[in-house]
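Dear colleagues,

As part of the handover before I leave the project, I'm documenting each prediction I ran so the next person doesn't have to rerun anything. This entry is a single chain, and its sequence is reproduced below.
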Amino acid sequence: MSETVGEAKDLMTDYLRQIYKHVELCKEVITGTWKEKIEFVFSLPTKWNTLDTVNRFNDAIYAVGFTSQNSDKHSAKLELTEAEAAAVYSATNSEIELDKGDNILIYDADGGKTDLGLVEVADPNPERPALKQVTKVQGFGTGSTMIDQAFELLVQERSEI
């Protein structure tokens, strides 16, 4: 765990650099070239609600090479929160036919947190649905890791009986 903001940024930059190198290698192996224009789209953790944090992430993306001053090469966008991205994915890949006015509850639980949000279908076009945010996406400090730990404790308690 990093102790300072600077250390955290350095770790994030190193991590992103390795991802970038991996994408570059895979692209070259599969297509033989890395010269095509690529647009990278990043989602943001819901808890990142300060502009400073988002700007640090954007700076790291730029430093690694995901974006380029030459727009013919690569570009990168910081788009949606993770939970909003999950809602967009669900709306465009749903087996259920969505109608105007339908609501989608977003429940995004990862290891350390859970994000909850609610969106309404404004336009049900299956190719590109329009979603309207009903409630602001909120992150809670209860993730699946904590659920797993609570389950382990429950099993231990019951096995001791």
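Helices lie at 5-31, 51-64, 82-92, 144-159. The chain has a mean pLDDT of 85.

All the best with the project,
I.
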